[in-house]
Structures are given as structure tokens and as C-alpha cells.
Amino acid sequence: MIEITAAMLEGYLREAFGPGTVLVDYGDIGSLDKQGMKKFGYGKPLLVLFTVDGEERETVISVMKGDNYGHQFYWDRAAVLMFQYETSARLPRHVKPMGIGYISRSGEMLPLNEPQEFFILNEKLQGYDYFNDLDRIRNGDFSDQDVQSAADLAGWLAEIHSVKKDDPHLYMRRIRDLIGSSECIMGLIDEAFKHPCEFFSQSRFVNLEKKLIDWRWKLFHYTHRLCAVHGDFHPWNVLMGGPEDFSVLDRSRGEWGEPAGDLCCMATNYILFGLYSDGKFSSKMRNLYMTYMETYLEKTGDMEVLQVMAPFFVFRGLVIASPVWYPDHPQEVRDALMRFIENVLEDEVFDYVQFERYMR
């Protein structure tokens, strides 16, 4: 945890309460040793005494510490503190918040003034969305450059996935999130499909979730695979044609994860576009898919990825099969995708060459 100094406190108090603010004293309050049988806590509060234009005031400042319960990163902890700031005063008898702020990289304590929503500014990149290339190919226009693009994308993934991290708890968190997060599998099942679903029965959803529990326990044996990831590597997050040939947008769900997540994301979209081919899988899209997969496997030597891909295909398959996210699919395309996510869970090792069989 970051150590708070008198200079940091005084700077913050003056910024938050005005130039007439003076720090009087500060010290620990409610240390973890004074919590009885509860030996685990999320932070150590600091009692601060100060004056504003001569009026005495006091406050308790808390900084969360990182842990393996979903608080590994400062943005995890920021979410908890923002929740408390926004909601505590609305609960009868609850302690009332006096302010919220952050500690900058230069060691300053800075206030946030009544936050309601947050935003980010990014640079403007040149290029066009990669899905436009896939649409063009789907309509019959195919070139050698399209094959090279698929290889380049796989090569980029191989490069970023080469950065490894030894943190079994974080790997397990990512697997929990994959299955149970509102953004991922169970959230999609609940919110991205109408229930009862006309084309996928409740019993099929139940069986899908039960199989995923088995996969969850299997994947806990692969914690050594944790690496740097993009997190949302699909054709709408890739810009083609810029000065670097391609660029990527919208990194999601954390800096570290299972490389199969990125690999499956783009592969699933090649499968989606390949299904738009009058009943027979597109040979052009198969070419892109195989180029992409084989380039990745050749560059990484990671054949083990085929042992862990299935649940990640379920996640991405649910996205692209959803009537909420993709309302205009022909029913035969949607049915094929739902068969794919069911059947892919049946194999211990993903058959990336004969992948069409999972849709039968």
C-alpha cells in the first residue's frame, strides 16, 4: 500500500476544502489488530484532524490494499471506493462520505469533485474497421493481401502473448470472470437472449452451464499460461490500412489473461463470416481461419492452447449468436453457432482443422 505523508495530506486538504485549510494531526485508527476475531481486512484507516478557516474538523481517510479477491489493480479498488462514495449517504445510519480522490504517480493526493461519470481521451488513428474487409471477402472479392492480413494479426498476438506473468490467483480470477461475469458467459446467457428462447431451450442452457463448471476446474491446472492479452480482439476493434498496416482499439477485461481468449475471439468471427455462404462454409474464410490459426501455432509453438480453448469459444460464440448483438442473422447461421458452442465443450482438445464438425 502507498504510505500517506503529512505533505500529501495537507496538499489534498487545501485542494478539497480551500486555501484556509490547515493540517493539525493524523494517525492510525482501527488497526487490523483491534478487530477481534476478524483477522483479514481491506485497508487501514487514518484519522485526520484539520481546520478550515479556524473551524475544527476531522475525517477518516481509507486506502484499499490489493488482494486476490478481485482487487489486484488500482481500478478494481477505485470502483469499490466510488461505489461507497456514491451510495453510503443514502443508507440510514451509515457513515457519510466527505470526499473522494486519488493518489497520482507523482505522489499527490488529488480530489475528485462530485463524480457522476468518467471518460477517456484517446488519439485518433488512421484506418478502417477490419470487418469491412471480411464483408468484402464474403461478397466475393478476395486477394493475397487478405491472407497476409490474417497472418499478420496472428503474428501480433503471438508477440504480445510472449510476455508471461507468474500469478496463479490472477489466472484463476480471469477464469472465474470468463464463466461468471456479467460481461461474459453467464451475463450473456441472462441478458443477450430472450427467455424462453425460441431456438435454444432452457435445458440446453442448463447443460451448457453444467459443462462449463467442469471446464472451470480443468483450467485451474493451467495457471502457468498467464500472459499479456488484448481481451477483445475482434474485427470491430482492428483498424486496417494505417501507417503501421493495422492498429487495435479497446483493450478490455484486464492486462493479463489466457491467450486462448484472444485467439478464439478473431477465430470465431472468421467462422461467423464463413457461415454466410448459402449453406456451405466459405472456402475463402476457411483459408483466412487456417492461415490465422496455423501462423499463431507455428510462431508460438503453443499446442497446449488447443486444450483450453473451448470455454472461450463459448463466450465469443454467445456474443455473435445473440439476437441482441446481431439481430439480422439468418436462423440457420444462429443455429450453427449455438451447435458449435455446445459441441466444442465435448472435446478435451479443440480440433482446429476439422472445426466445421462442431456445427453439425
From TrEMBL:
Protein name: Aminoglycoside phosphotransferase domain-containing protein
Pfam family, one: APH
Occurrences of domain Aminoglycoside phosphotransferase (ranges): 136-268
Domain of life from the UniProt record: Bacteria
Lineage: Bacteria, Pseudomonadati, Thermodesulfobacteriota, Desulfovibrionia, Desulfovibrionales
UniProt cross-references to InterPro entries, sorted A to Z: Aminoglycoside_PTrfase (IPR002575), Kinase-like_dom_sf (IPR011009)
